[in-house]
Amino acid sequence: MTQLDASNARFGAPPARHVERRPPEISFGGRVLFLADDAELIRQQLHEGLNPQLTPDLKARLRDQISTDEITPA
Predict the structure, then answer these.
(1) Closest among 18, 21, 16, 19 to 6, alpha carbons compared
(2) What's the pTM value of the predicted model, to 2 decimals?
(3) Which segments in the chain show pLDDT lower than 50?
(4) Is the dihedral of CA 5, 7, 11, 17 positive or negative?
């Protein structure tokens, strides 16, 4: 029994449990959806699987000030 377990037992708390650390890096599968001022570009990404490169031209057309609360269903 560890010192922490002994201390917890004295106060009626459950024994401490081991919590594994997360890896230093995580990765996500899938693609990024670029939200641009171009409905056709968004349609191509969603329906045709287009995976555009983030070029200076695309950066200039990206939307900002997007509220994720409004696009995520409650």
Answers:
(1) 16
(2) 0.54
(3) none
(4) negative
The radius of gyration of the chain from alpha carbons, rounded to an integer in Å, stands at 24
Can you name the residues that pair with 62 across neighbouring β-strands?
36
Calpha distance 15→7 (Å, rounded): 9
Closest C-alpha to 16, from 24, 7, 28: 7
Q: What is the pLDDT of residue 8?
A: 62
Per the CB < 8 A criterion, the answer to whether 12 and 26 are in contact is no
pLDDT at 7 (0 to 100): 65
First to last CA, the chain: 45
Task: Extract the tokens encoding 50.
Answer: 């287009």
